[in-house]
Please model this.
Amino acid sequence: MRKAEKEIKDNADIEQVLHRAEVCRIGLCRGNEPYVVPMNFGYQDRCLYLHSAKEGKKIEFIKANNKICFEVGVDYEVKESENPCNWSMNFSSVIGLGKAYIIEDLEEKKKALDVIMGKYSCNNSFSYLDKAVEQIAIIKVKIEEITGKRSGI
Model:
């Protein structure tokens, strides 16, 4: 990281950003064609869990190349200044690299859904219809590299 003083070095702080962020942007590549998409997500044990349809551009890209980049951020605030060149932004962000896998096992998909649902709900007990779970894709991203950055906070 170019500005070492902005690096989030504590893993607990990086995980806090992952837990607080509401949207995860994933970057995929097929050949020389990049693709970025914002998604809801869950995080647990150095893995991201993403809910998706079973077909579509995202799934096609993952099947062609399962390497993935992701970004999440929180606490965005524009800091104005009289001099336009001195404007800045407060934020905390996390960027990572990993490999994406489509979960096929029904029970593993349900556990991943629990992680995603637990992020957005106060409830911690969920039940799913097997037929509904079979009709969706759950993508598991095993994180291989991760960095955090904080500015102005």
Observations:
- The longest strand covers residues 88-103.
- The chain is about 25% helix and 45% strand.
